[in-house]
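Quick board copy: two proteins, each given as sequence then tokens.
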Amino acid sequence: MSECCKSCGSVDLKETIMPAGYVHYARIDCNDCGKFVKWAKKPEKQIMQKINKYTGGYGDMNNVSLVGRLTKDVDMRYTAANNTAVAGFTLAVNRRIKAEGQPDADFIPVVAWQKTAEFCSKYFRKGQQVWINGRIQTRNWDDTDGKKHYVTEIIAEEVGFADSKKDDGTGSNSGNQQQSPPPQQQNDSNPSPSNPLPAAVNMPWEKQ
């Protein structure tokens, strides 16, 4: 280490890695006098290694995980171009920190495609708690008056039940519950920012 202890001038320093989640990466102390020298940041090389682990080496990352409850039943439709299944719904996700005068939850639009969409339409019901893994996607569309609308939504790539059991399939929580089927693990969300959701299947939350 190039630093030295400001108290005794010693260059014999030791680095103690702090526990995971701690505000600082490491603590530097003097081996001779035992006094604290400074807090150390995580080495850039290790930061990049962690980033590459999650991004495949591309340097960018777009990954979202949510757990929340459906505000309505799933809106299931099919694209006009090639009859591809697409489902839309909104998740109410409670905020951990609640501020006075602010909403207690965020209402997040989610879109699922193909087999994932069919799974959501078949098993997800209003009020159910579910989990979503996916990515954020932005797009825009023009309404019949020519007004442009901008949409930010979550493209669901993996979905599943967060409740211990799903409801009985009627949309009610009547107690006659069945064991939920295995979580959907399809990764078939083909559309990308260059292939946005067609205007023919705009979801209700996009309309003003």
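And the next:
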Amino acid sequence: MSLPVSELEGVLAALIIEHRRLLRQVIAQHEAMKALDLKSIDAATAQQEALRLRIATLEVRRQTVTTQLATPLRLTPPITLSRLLEAIPRAQQPTLRRQRDELRNVMQEIARQAGNGGRLAGAVLGYLNTAVRLLNGAIQRSGVYTRQGLSRNAPRLGVMDAVG
């Protein structure tokens, strides 16, 4: 039973490494978005996609090893690392527990950074939408203000109109 546990530890270690790489790419993409550096955004996005594929492959391996380990322990699906930790001997728990917690923390940080990137992208699109509306109004009319000094903006464009 020791072999599958060590194999699971190896897969979890690889997952942690790949998730840390993904976190670095998410942060790099966020910084590129702040600087409006399109080449860096594209490069970070491509690297993130490659990392996601590697993570998906490792996740399949993790599930296979977990199933192999759970069979002699008579665990029924769904098999989580927490349930597996309860079933294996205490001597083998500390490393798996530490890896599980570390992987969880890295994944939470990725989710937080991705949320920040989503908010930044929304703000940039809002800014671009406003700029397009102002330009649209300036082209359609001679001015963007009425004689009373009030702004005459064009109606708000949809996201697909502004981007596409």
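Board note added afterward: The chain has a mean pLDDT of 82.
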